[in-house]
Amino acid sequence: EEEEEEVVDQRGFGSLGADDGIHRKLLEHAQQHNRHNEIIESEIPEICKTEPCQLGIDEAGRGPVCGPMVYGIAFCPESQAGKIKRAGFTDSKQLNELQRNKFFKMIKSRLSHVMGWKVDILSSTNISAGMLAPSPYNLNQQSHDTAIGLIRRCIDHGVMVQSVFVDTVGKADKYQEKLERLFPQLSITVTSKADVKFPIVSAASICAKVSRDLVIDAWRHPEKIESDTSFGSGYPSDPTAKRWLKDNLDPIFGFPSVIRLSWKTASSMIESSCPLAEWEDDADSDGGSDSDEPARESRPGKRKPKLKKVKLTDMYSKTKDASFKPHKLYKDAGFRPVTNI
After folding, report:
1. For 106, phi and psi rounded to 5 degrees?
2. Fewer Cβ in 10 A, N or C end of the chain?
């Protein structure tokens, strides 16, 4: 029987205050189930159930090639908006790590009786799966649906939402029209730089950014590779991120799941550095096909690369071929060689 893995705070984020359970939930997500999306949320202040509230929405980690994108919302009664403004909230990108952590701790403690919040952590695995699907689910659609889901969740949980302020994704007017169709009872404002213009959006931005930073810093690779998460900013143009990608590209399995494979930076490195493979199709091997589409011909004047046809099951079989030496990942995953599959 496997022992439950210990949750470790590697970077001292305990200063944020772990007594409310939120800190531990973020660590558990980072170290035990980071391939999945997850919503982590505060208790809802009673005053938010009885007084009209404003709600702000923003995200962190939209552009990086690594790690999750985190959507955050914060809400408080309209009567308390002045208190939130006086607290000095501003866009998380204008704050350093210490300042962001200080504000997040304030949200969870001193302001917890008037302000609630939620974050939705969208895993890099699911982001890539959506974008690379046969019918692509692009990042803007994923962002819109996440924001919509968080608004609905607040309303379903009894928050008396009256006005919503959103930092735009895509064209602000089109996004606002979309939200107004879905929530005709609400006053909705979608604009760029909302995290600078509206303190409640600033608070949402801080919740999202601090949560993402903690998840990245505490990340435990499910592939059990020996690597850190020193990505720098994580943006494709960052030399530190590029160096990490180069150092952690496996020639067979590509990148670990912390990397968004749908980003051009990652897919280009896989295409240029990993060996080509051609998968056999069962229909083709029988001389038939379930598809009515004509076979796709190679482009004229371009030589078709000579590829070795390999069945996926050959990777797990006993073989004398040195090229099929069992990889460490198979052993870690518990696979065993067999003579026939």
Report:
1. -65, -40
2. N
